[in-house]
Write a structure and sequence with these properties.
Order of helices and strands of chain A: HHHHHH
Number of helices of chain B: 4
Largest interface: A-B, 31 and 31 residues
Distance between the termini of chain A: 21 Å
Order of helices and strands of chain B: HHHHEEEEEEEEEEEE
CATH topology of the largest domain in chain B: Thrombin, subunit H
CATH superfamily of the largest domain in chain B: Rod shape-determining protein MreC, domain 1
Strand content of chain A: under 5%
Number of strands of chain B: 12
Oligomer: heterodimer
CATH class of the largest domain in chain B: Mainly Beta
Largest sheet of chain A: none
Helix content of chain A: over 70%
Strand order of the largest sheet of chain B: 1-2-5-4-3-12
Number of domains of chain A: 1
Structural class of chain A: mainly alpha
Helix content of chain B: 25-40%
Radius of gyration of chain A: 15 Å
Shape of chain A: globular
Number of strands of chain A: 0
Radius of gyration of chain B: 29 Å
Number of domains of chain B: 2
Shape of chain B: flat
Distance between the termini of chain B: 80 Å
Chain lengths: 167, 256
């Protein structure tokens, strides 16, 4: 694992996620945007060994917490929990095909979004209307964009992307 | 083990005081201020899609907003002028007086204190001791002045003392605030006929109030327990002070 490269890459994606640049590709009616950090979470969960996957999941979750400006800790916990679960699942079921990866991104996005929402409520934050539609919209958009973003991530991290391969 | 430690860290972050954790988010925003601003500019540019007339549009929008604000201010001033003209008609004795309308920004009314804070102050010509009108009746006097705000002590405040006259009796007495929503007049001999419902007028005070004006109404009139030859008169305001949104300060000798 190239940790320095990982840190730079995650920082860049966190800035991109926090900037309003993604608003350009936001889709109506809820201005849904893809969650690039979540796509990265799934990417590292299925392309690293288990211990690296745990570290990357929590690190990306922390980046999501400080960049998105959500309730601090909620994304760290939800990303860490589901990233680890995905890494363990990947040991049993290989997630290599593009549509499997898209499905994994969709499910992970929905689960992390929902858990982060509940943790925010637990911390006493007020909830927003249409929260589940928003989570669903982001999850769908991330699932569509995810496999394309995987190509960029695997090129930058010099990780072989076996999306079409059979192992 | 690794997972447990990270999870514990996440929980600490979640339940740590928000002012501490917010610092992390502010630090991120501070460090990456430049790329975040670039992103914002790009986004706004893409959303407006009016490259040729962007600057003109912005300026036009600013002017339109400014005009709307001015129109609203003009409407409020016109309403103020109408209200002040009515005051002069109702009180011919105050024809030469200046009136300053002010909005109440804070109420402090309880058993020990009856004060209002208004949004006019020294810069508007207010000084200590000026009388204040609410719903055409005297409600108190200016007690403290700062450049942009002033505090008004209601006549019901326990520390307030105002010379008053009851109804048609040609005798002045001192009225003292009695706490929440009432004031007391004592030391008036029982030989004077006072009835519940009699009007109480604030006495003239040269330089501050050139004509007597209504301040309250007699709500109760009983013999004083300590001195049965004197009345113990309870006076109530003639307006609902707690519902007042704006008041008028009387300046008897305006400089301008």
């Amino acid at each position: 694992m190239r940790w320095f490269r990982f840190a730079i890459f995650v920082s860049l994606v966190a800035v991109l996620q926090a900037s309003l640049l993604l608003d350009i590709i936001a889709l109506p009616p809820l201005s849904s945007k893809p969650n690039l950090l979540l796509i990265l979470l799934v990417f590292f969960a299925i392309h690293s060994n288990t211990s690296n996957a745990i570290i990357t999941s929590f690190a990306i979750g922390f980046a999501a917490d400080i960049s998105i400006g959500s309730t601090m800790g909620s994304q760290t916990i939800s990303f860490g929990l589901f990233g680890t679960a995905l890494a363990y699942l990947h040991r049993v079921i290989a997630i290599r095909k593009v549509h499997y990866q898209a499905f994994a991104i969709f499910i992970t996005a929905f689960m992390t979004g929902t858990l982060a929402h509940f943790l925010a409520i637990l911390r006493g934050q007020t909830t927003v209307p249409n929260i589940y539609s928003d989570i669903l919209g982001k999850a769908l958009y991330s699932a569509v964009v995810g496999p394309i973003f995987f190509l960029l991530a695997s090129w930058l991290m010099r990780i072989k992307n076996h999306r079409f391969g059979r192992h | 083990m690794l997972f447990t430690w990270f999870m514990l860290t996440g929980l600490i972050l979640l339940f740590a005081p928000q002012n501490l954790t917010n610092d992390l988010q502010f630090t991120f925003a501070r460090i990456f201020r430049w790329p975040l601003t670039i992103g914002k500019n790009f986004s706004l540019y893409a959303r407006t899609r009016q490259p040729a007339s962007d600057a003109t549009f912005d300026r036009k929008s600013q002017y339109e907003n400014h005009i709307t604000n001015l129109q609203e201010q003009l409407r409020l001033k016109q309403e103020e002028i109408i209200e002040l003209s009515r005051l002069r008609v109702r009180h011919p004795a105050l024809e030469k007086a200046g009136f300053i309308m002010a909005d109440v920004i804070r109420y402090s009314i309880n058993e020990t204190r009856s004060e209002l804070t208004i949004n006019r102050g020294q810069n508007d010509g207010l000084v200590k001791g000026l009388f204040v009108l609410g719903d055409n009746s005297i409600i108190g006097k200016i007690s403290e002045v700062s450049p942009r705000t002033a505090r008004l002590k209601l006549f019901t405040d326990p520390a307030s003392r105002i010379a008053v006259r009851i109804g048609n009796l040609n005798i002045d007495r001192l009225m003292q605030g009695g706490g929440k929503d009432e004031a007391k007049i004592r030391l008036l001999p029982t030989k004077y006929k006072v009835r519940v419902g009699d009007k109480v007028l604030a006495g003239k005070k040269p330089g501050f109030l050139d004509a007597s004006m209504i301040i309250g109404v007699v709500a109760r009139c009983e013999r004083d327990d300590r001195n049965p030859s004197m009345w113990d008169i309870t006076v109530k305001p003639v307006c609902d002070i707690e519902r007042l949104n704006s008041i008028t300060v009387i300046i008897m000798n305006p400089q301008n």
